[in-house]
């Protein structure tokens, strides 16, 4: 169907030309002025209906939410705030909308309300902006890796591997629950659940990604990841997208540089390609800030915050240094922590991470060399002990307002060390024979990380709830659409 996109028309100066616009009615005033949006632009185009020529029954159906087609001349607008409008001689109703029942009445809606009608929220300016930024960031990520010669490797979604032995997995099953296979004692044999294998939805493509890197040199994955976290936080989803690069012949420092370069590249891309969207989102946030008491208001606006992130080196400190900083933090700040970090070896809670980033350094921080105890088996053991304890070449990147955005490490490439560690924590080596083969045949130093895509979108859009940056959020009891 031939049509003119609103985004093109708003830039056009071909006055007098006949155009065809199709879109959804946002508002209809004085039986004459339609604000029409077709998704291509955050802005609506004004369609002026020649109501003397338009049948009454059509005028009655130009309701908020209706889809219409309008044909007419593009003219210079006399009204304020818009450059062009369409003087429509024909208006056709493509799809009616019951003005009373349409949930998106023309007024400002709360994000909580919009989350309840997530299937319709795409039509709001806010979500138009958020999902355009999301799209741009996804594109920029592919472009970044492509420019650097990485292979986009598709790792499996259904897998028998549980990656970290960490639990939190969704099972994938072909079991007939009405008539399940049973063992001798009559218990349901879940081992049979995927054509005779026990399988899950992937929690990370890393281990498979390492196989790719140890042949292709540098790969990245970018796909859906699943975690059965029965939690209701503003930072966790049950289904999220993760970017996981893996690089052969690379160490922790290369890994940190790659992550920092990549984050800056994609943020810069969004600043350059989503100017209108980010301006809109900035305005939205500034409105929200006005409702806060002065002391709690953010000093930087969204765009300044993103620029600041580009213009400054991320702070790089070790876990041990971070613990020292947290210990020294003033008593009144300590009170904000649910528990104090006095023991070296404890895992940081998001309140600690946010203290380091937002209060202490006031910029992104890369934390390295965590205690081995609180990190995964595949991370490379450091040569020197700290406080008599083992540490690993891990790195977490912490962002203001977000907390952990990236988790990564140099991988343990020494077979003996890796096997010893697996034995220590009880990870069955035979099940991961394929992983260990990379260490048996031509092992080499390598490193990689996982970036939570939605956490990146949160940071760039300034949204505060992860459910508002993914089109179809999955969280406990929410999987309808
Ligand atoms: P967190 O400590 O926030 O629970 P994690 O340490 O469990 O995260 P990793 O296993 O390190 O997460 O995964 C790598 C990245 O994936 C994280 O740094 C984060 O950006 C993102 N991520 C992890 N879990 C989720 C989730 N449930 N929803 C959205 N993003 C997530
Ligand atoms: Mg987690
Ligand atoms: Mg974590
Ligand atoms: Mg992590």
From TrEMBL:
PANTHER family: ASPARAGINE--TRNA LIGASE, MITOCHONDRIAL-RELATED, ASPARTYL/LYSYL-TRNA SYNTHETASE. This is Asparagine--tRNA ligase. One of its GO terms (molecular function) is asparagine-tRNA ligase activity. Residues 131-471 form the Aminoacyl-transfer RNA synthetases class-II family profile domain. NCBIfam families: asnS (TIGR00457), PRK03932.1 (NF003037). Keywords: Aminoacyl-tRNA synthetase, ATP-binding, Coiled coil, Cytoplasm, Ligase, Nucleotide-binding, Protein biosynthesis. It catalyses: tRNA(Asn) + L-asparagine + ATP = L-asparaginyl-tRNA(Asn) + AMP + diphosphate + H(+). It is found in: Cytoplasm. CDD domains: AsxRS_core, EcAsnRS_like_N. Transmembrane segments: none annotated. Residues 271-298 form a coiled coil. SUPFAM superfamilies: Class II aaRS and biotin synthetases, Nucleic acid-binding proteins. Belongs to the class-II aminoacyl-tRNA synthetase family. Homodimer. It is an enzyme of class 6 (ligase). Gene3D superfamilies: Bira Bifunctional Protein, Domain 2, Nucleic acid-binding proteins. Its EC number is 6.1.1.22.
